[in-house]
Here is the input.
Amino acid sequence: MGRNPKGRLLVLVVSALFLAGCAGAHTTITADRLKYPVSLSPALPDEKGKPLHLDKELRPVGDFGFSRTAVGYLYSLTDATIDISDELNREVESRNGKGIVDLSLEVRNCASSWFFPLTAIPFYPGCQNLSVTGTVVEREPAARDPGRGMP
Amino acid sequence: MILRAAVCLALFLLHGCTSITLTAKNSINPVMFGPRKSLGTEAVAQVPSGADRGTPFIHRVNTYATAAIGMGGMLGFGGSSTNPPPEEQGYSDWADNRLEGDSPRQMDWKVLRATKEDPSRRVDLESIRCRGFNFNTLMVFMLKISCEVEGVSPPAR
Here is the structure.
C-alpha cells in the first residue's frame, strides 16, 4: 500500500509500451489476366479509342460485388498481392457481357487487426479487406452498327 | 463498465468510418485497369515509350483515425488527405487539403487534369498499392490506410 506513486506510473508506462500491438497488410491489387476491358469510370474505349459511355453507347447487363482478403505478418511489413482477374472475367462471362465500367475498389483494415494483445505477436496475421463492385456492360446494338436500320 | 463501453465505441467508430474507395464514377474518360483492351477486340494496345508515353497519373490518398481512452472519457480524431495533380503542387490551398471520409471526386479531378480535359483521351492505371495497419496500446487506438494509384494518360490518337 505504501508504494511510491512514481514507481507505479513508471510500471504503467513501461507496461503500456511493451503491451503495444500492431497488425495490418501491404496489398498490391492487380488484374493482369483480364480478358475484357475494365474501367473505373462509366466509359470504355471502342476499337478506335473513342470513349463509349454507360446508358448511351453501353447497356448495363448486371451489377456485381465480391470481396477478397490480403494477409500481412510482422506488424504489416510483408507484402501481399490480390489478383482479381479471375473474378472479373467470371462476372463478365456469366452475364454474357463485353466489359466492366464503374469499377470501385474499397480497402478496409480487418476487424481482427484490433485483437489486442494478440497483435503484439509478430506472426499474428493482420489483414486488409478489398470490396470490389462494378457494372457489367455490353454495347448498345445501335452503337455496334450505326448504319443498320437507317433508311 | 464505462471504460469497456468507451473502448467498444472507439473501435466501432474507428473501424466503421475508415476506408478508402478508389473509383472514378464522375469521369467521362475511360480509366482502364489491367491490360490495355478495347471493347470488341481481343488485342492489347501497345504501350508508347519515352516522351510519347503521355501524361503521368498519380493518385495518393491517406486516411487515419485515432482514439485515446482514459479517466472514463474518450478523445478521438481523424482525417484524410490526398496529393494534388502534378501541375498544381505549388498551390497553397492543396497543402491544407483535408477531406471528410472517402472522396472519389478527387480521383475524378486528377483524371480530368491528366487527360487535359480532352474527352477522347483515357487513363491507363499501371499499379494500385494499398497499405494499412492498426496500432493499439491499452489506451490508445490508431488506424491508418493509404493507397497509391499510378498510371499514364496516353496522347490522343
Residues 5-18 of chain A form the longest helix (14 residues). The helical segments of chain A are 5-18, 85-94, 141-144.
